[in-house]
Task: structure prediction
Amino acid sequence: MVTRIALAGNPNTGKTTLFNALTGSSQRVGNWPGVTVEKKEGQLKGASDVQIEDLPGIYSLSPYTAEERVARDYLIQEHPDVIIDIIDATNLERNLYLTMQLLETGIPMVVALNMIDVVEKNGDKVDIDLLQERLACPVIGISALKGQSIEHLIQAALKTSQEAPEAAFPTYESYIHDAIFKIKEKLPESVEDYRRHWTSVQLFERDEDMWKQVKLSDDKKAVIEGLIEACEEKGDDDSEGLMSATRYDYIAKIIQGVYHTADEEKQSLTDKIDAIVTNRFLALPIFALVMYLVYFIAVSTIGKQGTDWVNDVVFGEVVPKYLGGYLDSLHLMPWLNGLIMDGLVAGVGAVIGFLPQMLVLFACLAFLEECGYMARIAFVLDRIFRKFGLSGKSFIPILVSTGCGVPGIMAARTIENDNDRRLTILTATFIPCNAKLPIIALIAGAFFPHQSWVAPSTYFLGMGAIIVSGIMLKKTRWFSGNPAPFVIELPAYHLPSFTGILRTMFERGKAFVKKAGTLVLLATVIVWFLQGFNWHLQMVEEPNHSILATLGRIVAPIFAPLGWPDWRAAVASVTGLLAKENLVGTFGVLFGFAEAAEDGSDFWPQLAHAFNPLAGYSLMAFNLLCVPCFAAVGALRREMMDDKLTLFAVVYQCVLAYCVSLIIYQLGMWYAEGQFGFWTLVALFILAGFIYMLFIKKPYKAPKKTYDYRPEPSK
Ligand code: GDP
Ligand code: MG
Result:
């Protein structure tokens, strides 16, 4: 009797090499009937009664490619006596997916753990005994290339084929396992024993061919369909997705502790940290704490000291003494002196003063990114984003946007799904960028000197706006659709290089100073001019009579419900559209930065007197969420590639900012001061609208897509 051995495995695992080693030259090459997939068969060297079939290299037994169908049909219809599953020992997780499906066929099997020479060369170790025990089938470590242990492998394969042990099916998640066994009971007698398990799995996965092949009565069909639907309900995915997920879960259990890398210590430390940091319940609180600390260090403590020093020493002593003294000695015209001291120094100085805080923030964020923590956050957020239809991929543009929205928006290019990409572009700039940091530091410093939660709260406000917008907009036709699977390589944690962090700090700091010296400078001069002159181009003593004041008063009433009816705040918000730092520069000019600095104090008290703290917070919230600067809007338009959507995005951002600020101010005043009026009602109404949109069932249902869960082939 002839023994038939089938060689199965992923591409590039050494199948051909092994086949050649086993058969010597006695191979025949042809095509499988009907398809041009190469077919190789041969006899085992020196044993004419052992036939070896080299199956095409495949990642899974799903029926999506010609290769997969060939392998599948061969295994199920020809039913070889034994399978040699050849897997790449350095790539266990990926390779074992096919192994799981091969085990499901119930055909006796031996695993050839190939490339064992590479493992040894790397100084790594594989616990073959443990793997064998968990897979419940013989595992032999070999090197097909070097001919190592091939004899042993073939002995094991022949022995297994003779003994034909009872199939050891993988044990998947219990409710899926139960469903498959119940389906098995419903199969007609005509399905042979050895095929029953595989058939049940295929029926469970809703494989069309299998549903046609198996002759099932209508009521049995309905019972099976009911079993599948119950699982889908429970697992919140289609049955095919559930199967592939449970296979991967099982694989994760199998490989635990099987492969030991040379830098095991580093890896095990990483695993220990990850167990906490990516824990289902702890991940988010830890992330919140980390971001709180980052802002606390940058805005409230270390960075703050640097900023205070710059303001006290540089703008309080050095600049007035030297520059001021020099200008005085020149006996310039008063307006020119005013332009330089009250315009340029005040505006640019107010912005530059925040440089130390920004540098510390850059350093903290660069550290988190380089040490590998942020990659974990993408992974953690994927779980949350997925619930409302985005994937962890959307976090990367958000991460980039913490530096600047322009590259952040461009980073969304990596998102293949058009709707998801657009939604990410629309929302990414809600996260505070570099330019918004001076606003945060100014408001936090002026209105909330002793409340360290205020600065970090802006990060969460931004994150909240992204998530809330995501949930709401996903329910519209423009942005609907299911997220694609998200795969991210989690690197081992490592200490970032000091120079790398310095470089990031330097580059971002440079860009910031450059902007202060150009855009902010320009805006400052314009603001200084408009606030210093009236419509007859005469200098005015009192800025309230200036051109700027008249212009500002036109827009100011719009913002009155937000708590800041002052024309200066309206003007500052408008200049912020050019560059967000302008808001601070404008305040510097309008609230007398230069005078205050000369007295050795800040202009903050002036500012804090003009509004109540709640209005300050609402002003900050509005400017954080409102349309980003022109540069970012330009990037948004280029990347949206659709003018209507761009317009929608800009309007949406403005309206959201307005609504959020209104809710904060009006409900805050109601709570704190008991003030209740028309606008409180409006705020309550809008809040109810948000809640309705968040919880309403999807009015627009996207057509269901199926995904191919096969892991990516290696390069
Ligand atoms: P197939 O795609 O599965 O047929 O894989 P091949 O037999 O074509 O092998 C892919 C590559 O892996 C070739 O470059 C082989 O030389 C190499 N290779 C195969 N087996 C081994 C092994 O045991 N050790 C090492 N180091 N390389 C191997
Ligand atoms: Mg090959």
